[in-house]
């Protein structure tokens, strides 16, 4: 399998443009990754990359080889998937990504149960509220809340996820109850916003008598971690827009209270993304099917 491993490593170096990043992705050392590329170049008698101190750039030969290398890996993965479908013993690893709230509350608790049922499948879970490059980061499955942008990927909708505007009672006692959506825009009230590199401007889609409208809300607090926003809301620092399931217990206990209920935020789609090729992999389908129903129940109950 060494030549095949060399090809796999070459593909990730090509896609990531960095030997160390590719090594981390492959769970090997940078020295091993470099050695695999060197072996491949020696076998092919060509240079596949032009090396600089910070980045690798594929040569013309490297660009040509990449297309064929991808076909080789896809063919082998498809053959393995076909065998797994027949033998009913799926194996291997899945690299799964999800937003922090979904990952911590809905996905992580289900993974040990999935592992018990399918002991030959390993799950590598990556949690982040930032936008992910599914292809570039080598992900098998990426769960999301919202509308996915990449139309080249397959989308599976799991459920519509209700959301709520809420704040702590001590915030309401200090600032008063918000009476109109314009108070979220003109600075009358402080809004707690999710922000990460490349995120769009703050736009909260709220229901109005004229239909759904987006409001460019304002506030002095922002974070790329949704749970940080929840904690700030609990401490009385502002109004937060959250998926209902993430703050259900806080609403039940009274630690948070709903506000502007006549202008509730629209529900958001909970779903997952994966490539067309990954859909042929039995373990991908098994994992999504295993999680879909309990996740849907959790966000809608």
Topology:
Layout: H1 2-16, H2 19-26, H3 30-44, E1 49-51, E2 56-58, H4 60-87, E3 92-98, H5 100-107, H6 111-117, E4 121-127, E5 141-145, E6 154-161, E7 163-167, H7 169-175, H8 182-185, E8 191-194, E9 204-208, E10 211-215, E11 221-223, H9 226-234, E12 239-243, H10 244-253, E13 257-258, E14 268-274, H11 282-300
Parallel strand pairs: 3-4, 3-5, 8-11, 8-12
Antiparallel strand pairs: 1-2, 5-14, 6-14, 7-12, 7-13, 9-10
Helix pairs in contact: 1-2, 1-3, 1-4, 2-3
Describe this entry's structure for a reader.
The protein has 301 residues and is α/β, with parallel strands linked by helices. It folds into 3 domains: 2-85, Orthogonal Bundle (Arc Repressor Mutant, subunit A); 91-160 and 269-300, D-Maltodextrin-Binding Protein, domain 2, CATH 3.40.190; 163-266, Periplasmic binding protein-like II (D-Maltodextrin-Binding Protein, domain 2, 3-Layer(aba) Sandwich). The chain contains 11 helices and 14 strands. It has helices spanning 2-16, 19-26, 30-44, 60-87, 100-107, 111-117, 169-175, 182-185, 226-234, 244-253, 282-300; strands at 49-51, 56-58, 92-98, 121-127, 141-145, 154-161, 163-167, 191-194, 204-208, 211-215, 221-223, 239-243, 257-258, 268-274. The strands form 4 sheets. A 5-stranded mixed beta sheet has the order 4-3-5-14-6. Helix 1 crosses helix 2 and helix 2 (19-26) crosses helix 3. The protein is elongated and about 75 Å long. The model has no long low-confidence stretch (mean pLDDT 87).
């Amino acid at each position: 399998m060494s030549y095949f491993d060399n090809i796999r490593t070459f593909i990730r170096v090509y896609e990531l443009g960095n030997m160390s990043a590719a090594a981390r992705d492959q769970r090997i050392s940078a020295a091993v990754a470099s050695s695999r590329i060197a072996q491949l170049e020696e076998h092919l008698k060509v240079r596949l990359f032009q090396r600089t101190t910070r980045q690798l750039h594929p040569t013309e030969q490297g660009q040509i080889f990449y297309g064929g290398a991808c076909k080789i890996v896809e063919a082998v993965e498809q053959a393995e998937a076909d065998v797994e479908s027949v033998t009913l013993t799926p194996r291997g690893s899945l690299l799964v990504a999800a937003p922090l709230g979904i990952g911590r509350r809905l996905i992580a608790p289900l993974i040990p149960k999935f592992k018990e049922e399918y002991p030959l499948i390993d799950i590598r879970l990556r949690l982040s509220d930032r936008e992910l490059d599914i292809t570039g980061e080598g992900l098998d499955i990426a769960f999301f809340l919202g509308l996915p942008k990449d139309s080249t990927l397959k989308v599976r909708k799991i459920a519509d996820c209700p959301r709520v505007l809420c704040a702590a009672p001590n915030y309401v006692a200090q600032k008063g109850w918000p009476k109109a959506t314009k108070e979220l825009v003109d600075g009358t009230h402080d809004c707690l916003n999710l922000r990460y590199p490349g995120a769009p401007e703050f736009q909260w889609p709220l229901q109005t008598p004229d239909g759904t409208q987006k409001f460019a809300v304002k506030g002095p607090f922002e974070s790329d971690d949704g749970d940080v926003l929840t904690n700030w809301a609990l401490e009385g620092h502002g109004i937060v827009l959250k998926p209902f399931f993430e703050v259900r217990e806080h609403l039940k206990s009274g630690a948070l209270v709903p506000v502007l209920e006549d202008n509730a935020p629209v529900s958001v789609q909970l779903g997952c993304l994966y490539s067309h090729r990954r859909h042929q992999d039995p373990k991908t389908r098994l994992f999504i099917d295993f999680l879909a129903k309990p996740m849907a129940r959790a966000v809608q109950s």
